[in-house]
Amino acid sequence: MQLSRRSTFPFARLALSPVWLLVLSWLSVPLALGAEAGPPNVVMIISDDQAWTDYGFMGHPHIQTPRLDQLARESLTFARGYVPDSLCRPSLATMITGLYPHQHRIVGNDPPFPESVMNLPPAGRRGSPEYLKNRIAYLDHITKAPTLPRLLGEAGYRSHQSGKWWEGSYQRGGFTHGMTHGDRTRGGRHGDLGLKIGREGMAPVHDFIDECQRDKKPFFIWYAPFLPHTPHTPPERLLNKYRDKTDSLPIAKYWAMCEWFDETCGQLLDHLEQRGLSENTIVLYVCDNGWINDPQASRYAPRSKRSQYEGGIRTPIMVRWPGKVKPQHDTTTLASSIDLAPTVLAACGVKAPEGLPGVNLLDASARSARKALYGEILEHDIQHMTDPEPSLRFRWIIRDQWKLIVPHPAREPKAAVELFDVLADPTEQNELAAKHPDVVAKLRDELDQWWKP
């Protein structure tokens, strides 16, 4: 509290008195403790189609991401972070549930066509009433799942969905507020109105924060903008920064999209700071899957999105909680998006459901006790409404420097088992399975113990 000579406070002249300063200090203690005593807010920032290398703090020579660089400096940052599947819908469902795709059963982007429409042309199949029933029925998986918004809601939290969201209305996921209507008859598929966030401003998220602050309610925010995802339509001012840094216009557009996404993250973080909420807000960062831009067009290249390689499944993962989490750039510990849900629930004092496979990333002993990560690569188009195995293409495991990829014989009969040293060879150019059969056998046994279809 600062008092000027013109203050109408009756004891203004005592402002410089050591005794009065001591009294003010004593009075401020319960106020400060009261502010910290409330449950923390949670903001989850999710990039959409971005390579794990495509940030300033991850060493990209051209892409500028100053706001995420700052977030990384302020966070417990895991450079060896992963998602179990390199496709957006299963990956996002894992973040909201803390379960692997084969556990939450959301294993692809679009459900299978019923047999009754297979004689129709492709356009007719997608527009058929029978297929619409399948699309709606597939939403039952998220309706039945113990999602973060539902679990936090039981503890008094409000929650807001914006950006990418495949699971019908935001309410199906347990959110109290949101942007996505999810009506399949009105273009609802993967976000509809929610996809405007970031690209057309941040007002819905900012307004939600302000409403929760007025009502003194803790909040959970799902900020998953359609960025840097195609269409790659960055502001001209950003595109101009990258035109002379590459001979490929599609790549320049993608790089500019990464910076545009970074700017929107900064707007969200600035709003928290301006409202005095940064100290009691946990900010988490992850990307849904990787992306390597084709130099010839705004589309993904091989070994990135939808693939079993590092370009598809690797992402930095960050957790910022000022005063509670010590910032560190961790280049050795393995982290996964399955860890986000148990981390949030533990930090918020909410009991996690039994059987969550992830660990609390804020628990150092839990982090060190886990030695391996697992994942599964599935088809874009779901092959069965309830059984995940028909959609399975590959399983993978990472332990220490080793990464083993095992194809599913039914869907990838011509693919070979592959082994890589991803520390020495992060772009996976040197396949080593024949040179290390003992490592292959050991890791395959461990992979089978995790999930053997």
Labels describing this entry:
eight-stranded mixed β-sheet, 2 domains, 15 helices, disordered N terminus, 453 residues, Alkaline Phosphatase, subunit A, alpha/beta
Overview of this structure, please?
- It contains 15 helices and 12 strands.
- The protein is an alpha/beta fold.
- It has 2 domains: 32 residues, no CATH class; 330 residues, Alkaline Phosphatase, subunit A.
- Strands 4-3-5-1-6-7-2-8 form an 8-stranded mixed β-sheet, with helices on both faces. A 4-stranded antiparallel β-sheet has the order 9-10-11-12, with helices on one face.
- The protein is globular and about 60 Å long.
- The N terminus is likely disordered.
Layout of strands and helices, then pairs:
Blueprint: H1 18-37, E1 41-47, H2 66-73, E2 76-82, H3 88-97, H4 101-104, H5 122-126, H6 129-137, H7 140-144, H8 148-153, E3 158-163, E4 177-178, H9 203-215, E5 219-224, H10 236-242, H11 249-274, E6 281-287, H12 310-313, E7 317-320, E8 328-336, H13 340-347, H14 364-369, E9 372-378, E10 392-399, E11 402-407, E12 418-421, H15 437-450
Parallel strand pairs: 1-5, 1-6, 2-8, 3-4, 3-5
Antiparallel strand pairs: 2-7, 6-7, 9-10, 10-11, 11-12
Helix pairs in contact: 10-11
Q: What number of structural domains do the residues give?
A: 2
The main β sheet shows up as:
8 strands, mixed
Model regions low in confidence, pLDDT < 50 over at least 5 residues: 1-36
CATH topology of the largest domain: Alkaline Phosphatase, subunit A
Percentage of residues in helical conformation: 25-40%
N→C terminal distance: 64 Å
Order of helices and strands: HEHEHHHHHHEEHEHHEHEEHHEEEEH
Radius of gyration, in angstroms, nearest whole number: 24 Å
**Shape-level CATH architecture of the largest domain:** 3-Layer(aba) Sandwich
How large a portion of the residues is in β-strands, by DSSP E? 15-25%
Count of DSSP-assigned helices: 15
Quaternary structure classification = single chain
Shape: globular
Arrangement of strands in the largest sheet: 4-3-5-1-6-7-2-8
How confident overall, as mean pLDDT? 92
For this structure, what is the CATH homologous superfamily of the largest domain?
Answer: Alkaline Phosphatase, subunit A
Q: In total, how many beta strands?
A: 12
